[in-house]
Amino acid sequence: MSERKDSAPRVCVGAIAGAFGVRGEVRVKSFCAEPADIANYSPLTTEDGTRSFDLRLTRPTSGGLGARLSGVTTREEAEALRGLTLWAERGKLPSLPDDEFYHADLIGLEVVDTGGAPLGRVRAIYDHGAGDILEIAGEGGIVLLPFTRAVVPTVDLGARRIVADPPGSDE
User: In the chain, what is the straight-line distance between the N-terminal and C-terminal CA atoms, in Å?
Assistant: First the structure.
């Protein structure tokens, strides 16, 4: 079965980087601001929602966290999960201040310029260390915009719309 079992919005909070040890422990890469918070959102599901795991952290590891997943008892089972993403129900995540957003909440939002002309929709968000970049897909192709207050002055989640002032648009 490849279809999701539920329709609750979910957010990717981590990924399994591989097996750790010989008794089914996994190495988890957490995508949470505080890496250990991933355990607070258990049970976690696979992207397609067909598998669910209770996650218990065991120890820090190089490049991640050691963890036990319910139902995983051997190294072979743990290794078979390498690359699997872990998803939490959106409602379990903490609320954010008004000027912060979960990436999952921005994907798919309509983007318009300051005059109201459509630019496209947010297709992806990248973080290469110097700040987030929005990938906007529109009729004119792909546009990459820095996700800063100067370039993106308004994010209205209720209206599912972003107002952007792309660099060079006032020339």
Answer: 52
